[in-house]
Automatic annotation (TrEMBL):
Enzyme class: lyase
Catalytic reactions on record: a 4-saturated-(3S)-3-hydroxyacyl-CoA = a (3E)-enoyl-CoA + H2O; a (3S)-3-hydroxyacyl-CoA = a (2E)-enoyl-CoA + H2O
Known function: Could possibly oxidize fatty acids using specific components.
Protein's recorded name: enoyl-CoA hydratase
Keywords: Fatty acid metabolism, Lipid metabolism, Lyase
Higher taxonomy: Bacteria, Pseudomonadati, Pseudomonadota, Alphaproteobacteria, Sphingomonadales
EC id: 4.2.1.17
Keyword flag Lyase: yes
Record flagged with keyword Hydrolase: no
N-terminal signal peptide: none
InterPro entries for this protein: ClpP/crotonase-like_dom_sf, Enoyl-CoA_hyd/isom_CS, Enoyl-CoA_hydra/iso, Enoyl-CoA_hydra_C
Biological process annotations from GO: fatty acid beta-oxidation
Molecular function in Gene Ontology: 3-hydroxyacyl-CoA dehydratase activity
CDD domains, sorted: crotonase-like
Length: 257
C-alpha cells in the first residue's frame, strides 16, 4: 500500500514505520493520522508481523501537530470535529508499537511517542510540550501521559515553561526505556521489536493489555485483571508448547493459538 506521509517497510516480522514529512520536521497533519491508522490496522491484520517500530528522521521524530494546519481553526471547528480524537484509535492497536525517537519529539510528537508502548531514545532525542508558547496546551494526551510517565513536578514544569528534556533526563525520569547511540537506534529498535515478534502472539497481546491497564485501573482491579488474563493464557496451545519447550530445553514453536 502507498502512503503519502509515511514509509512502511517489513523487516522480517517487524513493521518499520517512518514518518516522512522532512520539510515540516514530520509535523503531524490529518494525512499523517490517516496513514498511521491504515499502517497500524495493516499490522494488526497481518499474521506475519508481530511488532512495529515507529520512527522519524535524525533531526525530528516529529516537531508537533502541524501548526500551519491548525492556525486558522476556531473553537467550533476544533470542538465540532473533536480534533485529534482519531489518535484514540491509534492506541487501540493490539500489537506492540515501539517509538524510536531521534531529535525533536515536541508537542504532538512527544504525545505520539508516548502513545506507543515504550520509547527507545537516541542520545540526540529531545522531548517537550512547548504548546504553551503558542498560547495553547497539549491536545493529544500529553498532559496526562507525561504526568503519568515522569510525575507531576517535571510534567508541570515542561508544560508551563515549554522546556525540553534531553535523552538522559528522559531516561532518568522514566519517560524512555533506554538511550541508544543515534547511529544504532533503528537497528536496536528493530532488534528489540524482533524479540517481541518472536514471542507467542496471544501472550504478547495479553502482556500489552495488562501493562496498559495499570494506567486505567486501581491496584486491586488491575491485579485482578492481570490474574484473569494470566488464567486465560492457560487456554492457549502456545502455553502448553512454551512450558513443554522449557522442560525439553528447546525453543518454543508458536502457533498463535
Ligand atoms: N508544524 C508545522 N510546521 C512545522 C512544525 C510544526 N509543528 N515544526 C516545524 N515546522 C516547519 C517549520 O515551519 C519550517 O518550515 P519552513 O521551512 O516552511 O519555514 C520547517 O519545519 C523547519 O523548521 P525550523 O526552520 O523551525 O527548524 P529549526 O531547526 O530552526 O527549529 C524546532 C526546529 C525547534 C523543532 C522548531 O521547528 C519548532 O519550534 N517547531 C515547533 C514546535 C512546536 O511548537 N510544537 C508543538 C506544536 S502544537 C501541538 O503539537 C499541539 C498538540 O498538542 C497536539
Amino acid at each position: 500500500m502507498d502512503y503519502e506521509t509515511i514509509q512502511v517497510e517489513q523487516r522480517g516480522a517487524v513493521t518499520l514505520i517512518t514518518l516522512d514529512r522532512p520539510k515540516a520536521l514530520n509535523a503531524l497533519n490529518a494525512q499523517v493520522l490517516t496513514d498511521l491508522l491504515a499502517a497500524l490496522a495493516a499490522l494488526d491484520a497481518d499474521h506475519s508481523q508481530g511488532c512495529a517500530v515507529l520512527t522519524g528522521s535524525d533531526k525530528a521524530f516529529a516537531a508537533g501537530a502541524d501548526i500551519k494546519e491548525m492556525s486558522g481553526m476556531d473553537f467550533a471547528a476544533m470542538y465540532g470535529s473533536d480534533h485529534f480524537s482519531g489518535y484514540d484509535r491509534l492506541v487501540q492497536t493490539r500489537k506492540p508499537v515501539i517509538a524510536a525517537v531521534a531529535g525533536y519529539a515536541l508537542g504532538g510528537g512527544c504525545e505520539l511517542a508516548m502513545m506507543c508502548d515504550f520509547i527507545l531514545a537516541a542520545d540526540t532525542a529531545k522531548f517537550g510540550q512547548p504548546e504553551i508558547k503558542l498560547a495553547v496546551s497539549p491536545g493529544m494526551g500529553g498532559s496526562q501521559r507525561l504526568t503519568r510517565a515522569v510525575g507531576k513536578a517535571k510534567a508541570m514544569e515542561m508544560c508551563l515553561t515549554g522546556r525540553m528534556m534531553d535523552a538522559g533526563e528522559a531516561e532518568r525520569a522514566g519517560l524512555v526505556s533506554r538511550v541508544i547511540p543515534a547511529a544504532e537506534l533503528i537497528d536496536e529498535a528493530v532488534k528489540t521489536a524482533a524479540v517481541i515478534a518472536g514471542m507467542a502472539p496471544i501472550a504478547v497481546k495479553a502482556n500489552k493489555e495488562m501493562v496498559n491497564a495499570a494506567f486505567e485501573t486501581g491496584l486491586t482491579a488491575g491485579v485482578q485483571f492481570e490474574r484473569r488474563l494470566f488464567h486465560g493464557l492457560f487456554g492457549t496451545a502456545d502455553q502448553k508448547e512454551g512450558m513443554a519447550a522449557f522442560v525439553e530445553k528447546r525453543p518454543g514453536n508458536w502457533t498463535g493459538k
